[in-house]
Amino acid sequence: MKTPDKEEFTLSIYSENHVGLLNQITTVFTRRHINIESLTTSESAISGIHKFTVVVDATADNIEKLAKQIEKRIDVLKVFVFRADEIIHQEIALYKVSTSSLLGGNEIEKLVRQYGARILEITPEYTVIEKTGHKEETQELFEKLDPYGVSQFVRSGRIAITKTKKELLENYLKKLETDQTQLN
Amino acid sequence: MEPQSQLLMKEKTNETRRMSGSEAVMQSLLKEGTSIIFGYPGGAIMPIYDALYNYHDQMHHVLTRHEQGAVHAAQGYARVTGKVGVCFATSGPGATNTVTGLADAMMDSTPLVVITGQVTSSLLGTDAFQETDVVGVTQPVTKWNYQVRKAEDIPAALARAFYIARSGRPGPVVVDITKDAQINELDFQYRPVKSIRSYTPESPIDFHQIEEAAKLINLSKKPLALIGQGIVLGNAEKELLDFLEKSGIPAAWTLLGLSAIPSSHPQNVGMLGMHGNYGPNIKTNEADLIIAIGMRFDDRVTGDLTRYATNAKVIHMEIDPAEINKNVHADVPVLGNVKKTLPLITGKITKNEHKDWLAEFEACFRIEYNRIIDKEIAPDDKGLRMGEVISKVSSAFNDDAVMVTDVGQHQMMSARYFRFKQTRSVVTSGGLGTMGFGVPAAMGAKLGAPERPVCVFVGDGGFQMTIQELGTIFQTKIPVKIVLLNNNFLGMVRQWQELFFDRRYASTELINPDFQTIAKGYHVPSVKVTERETLNDAIKQMVESEGPFLMEVLVEKEGNVFPMVPSGASVSDIRLE
Ligand SMILES: Cc1ncc(C[n+]2csc(CCOP(=O)(O)OP(=O)(O)O)c2C)c(N)n1
Ligand SMILES: [Mg+2]
Predict the structure, then answer these.
(1) Which terminus of chain A has fewer Cβ atoms in its 10 Å neighbourhood, N or C?
(2) What is the pLDDT of residues B278-330, one digit of tens each?
(3) Whose CA is closest to B111, among B87, B84, B89?
(4) Structural domain tally of chain B?
(5) What is the pTM for the complete model shown?
(6) Domains (range + CATH), chain A
(7) Closest Cβ–Cβ partner in B140, B164, B321 for A74
(8) Residue owning the nearest CA to atom 3 of ligand 1
(9) Which residues of A touch B328 (CB under 8 A)?
C-alpha cells in the first residue's frame, strides 16, 4: 500500500483559558507522533476564549482523527483545520546585525528595502531588523543577510486568519445554542 | 459521634452553610447520590477522612489494601450499577497507585470520580514530601482532571467532575484537592452542573443519517449487528431488542457487549474478536452490511483492518465523534446516544427474518462446537479444562450471576463459556487488559449488586497481583465467589510462546504458593479441585456458602484458547486449532 502524502495543515484550536491546556493539546500530537512545526497561542476575538494556531505536516486522514481527539478534551471548544489556501497567514522574524556592517556599505539597507523589512532599533553596537511574511520569505532574507553577520535570528510561530468573513467560532457558538435547545 | 452527624443532616437546606472544604467534599458527594467510597488514607487527605468520620451512617467507606484495588473496586461498582464509582487516595504514591485503574476506566468508558489529596498549596512545585504532579500524571488517562487550591472551589469542581464522568461517553475524572483547601472554610452551596460550554456529551440527532441507515438496512441481504458496551452504558437494551427482533439481523457482541442481550437469544451469534466465535468472525467478510452499535472497532475485534469487512457497507452508531472513521470507515455514521437513535431506525425499517443468513451462523456454530466447544466443556481426557469449569459454574448459578474476570486465558474462556440472562452481568478489563483487575472489581460489583451472586474467575498469575484484597474481602465481609483457574503458567503468554515463539517458554512458568493457606490466613474458606470427580461437589459447596469463598481448580497446564485470530491476521484467517 502506498502511504498517503503529507501536507501542511494549520489548526485553529479554541479553548477555555485554563492552566494546563497546552499540555492537554500537545499530548494528542505526541501520541500520534506528529511533529509540531510551529505554535502560537493568544486570546481570541471572543473574550475568555483562547486560540492556539498550530502548523503541522500530516496526512489528511491523520489530521481529521487528530482534530477530533483534540476536540474531545473537555475544555476545548472547537478545532478548525485549514489548508494553506484557506487562510491568510504571517510570521514575524527579527534579525540582529552589527551596526558597523550596516555602515560598511549600502548592501544591508538595500536588502531591507527590497524585502519590505524595517529597521526596529539602531544602537552603536547592533541593529535589529524586522520582517513579517511567510516562512520562505523570512528565511530568504536571513540567507541574504547572513554573509554580513547575523548574530541573532528568531522567527515566531504562524498566526492565521481565515478568508471567510466571520470568526468561525462565533458561528459555532451560535449553533451550540440551537443544538442545546433542540436537546432539551 | 452519631449525634453530631444527625445534627448535620437536619441542617440540610438550600441555604449556604459555613463548613470546611473537607465537609464540603462529603456534602457534595451526598448531593451526587454517592453512598459508597473506596479508598486509602494518608497525610494529604487526612482532613477529608476526618470529615468522613462524621458521615459513617450515610456513607460506606471501603478500606482496600492498595489504591489500585480501590479504583478497580469502584470500577466494578460502576459497571454493575451504572452509577459513578468514587475513590479517595492520598497524594504522591497514593495518587500514582491509581493510575492503572484510571487508564483501565478510560479505555472501558467507566464513570469514576477519584479524589486525591495534595500537599498544601504554598508547597506546590517545591518537591514537598509526597508531592506529585497528579494533574500532569493523570491527564492522559482521564476524561478530565482538575486541581482545587481553594476551599470555595470544591463544590463547583465536584459538580463538574460528576457531570463529566457520567455524561456522554463516560470516563474517569480526577479532582486533586490541596490540604489547605480541605481545611479552610467556605460557604457551601451545591449547584449540579447541567452543561459545559466547551463540551458536547451527545451530538444532536441527524435525521438524514437515520434515513440513510434505514435505507441500507432495508436493502441488505446479509447484515450483521455488532453490539458493544454502548448499549449497556446507554441503557438501551430494550431498544436493541426491538431493533433486532424487527430486523431479524444476527447480532454478535464484543467482550464488553456481553450480557447486553441474553446469551440464549436466537439472534445472538456469539462473540467477536481474537478469541470470539467462529461464525461472527468468518462471516464479517461475507456480510454486506455491518451495523456497529456502541462499539469502537478495537484491533482485538477487527484484526487486519485492510482485510476487514471487505464486502460490507458500514453503519456506525456511536456517541463519541472521535471514534467515527478512526479505525473503520463509516459509510453512514449515526452520531448520538443509541437509546435515542436505535428506535428511530427501528421505526423506519421493514420487518425481516434473514432465516438463511442466520442458518449460516448456525452451521458455523456446529463446526465450532464439534471441533472446539465440545472438547472444552465435556472433555474425554483426564486433565481438567477451564471451559468445563466455567460452564458448570455458570449452570450452578442458574446462568444468572455477575461474571467478573481477571486477564488471560481464563478471561477469554469465561467470556466464551459463561452464560447471561440479564444485562450488566459482566465486569472485565477489556481495553487495557489489566491483570489484577478481577478480585477488587468483584468486590465493588458485589457491593453494587448485593442481591446477585458475583463470581470472579482469576488466573494464578493475576490473582497474585492484587491478592492482598482478600484482606478487604474479609474485613468488609464481601461474599464474592472466587474461582482460581490454576495452570501454573502465565497461560495466555505461554500460549503465544507455543504458537508464535517456537515453544520457548521464557519466564512464564509460575511456582506458586499454597493458595488455600493464603486464603486461610485471610479467613476465606476454600476448596481445591484436582480431579473431575470432585468438581461438582466443590462448585456446590461454593454456591451454597454464605460468605466469600475460594475454589481453586488445577487445570491442564498447557491448554489453549481457540478459535484464535492471530495478532495482525484477518478475521477470515481465524484458526480452529
Ligand atoms: C499488569 C499486566 N501485566 C502483564 C500482562 C500481560 N499478560 C496478559 S495475560 C498474561 C498471563 C496471565 O496469566 P494468569 O493470570 O495465570 O492467567 P492465564 O492466562 O493463565 O489464565 C500476561 C502476563 C497484563 N495483561 N497485565
Ligand atoms: Mg495461569
Answers:
(1) N
(2) 999 999 999 999 999 999 999 999 999 999 999 999 999 999 999 999 999 99
(3) B84
(4) 3
(5) 0.94
(6) 7-87+160-179 (3.30.70.260), 91-157 (3.30.70.1150)
(7) B164
(8) B435
(9) none
